[in-house]
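Issue 218. Parser rejects a valid record. Input:
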Amino acid sequence: MRQDYFSSNNIKYIDYKDIEILKKFLNPNGKIMNHKRTGVTSKNQRQLSEAVKRARFLGLLPFVAK
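Output the parser choked on:
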């Protein structure tokens, strides 16, 4: 099983403004990948999805990629 990205990089808070990190967890269509594929813990997956949704609402990330 993969190591949790956020634990291994010592990231305590998943920031919605950090788009480069959030893009790693989106598939080419712009959907959030599931935690089984990314290896993220359930707690961090919830924080990640919340951060992606906030970034989408502010226009930092697309809702759907072309």
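Fixed in the parser; the record now loads. Residues 42-57 form the longest helix (16 residues).
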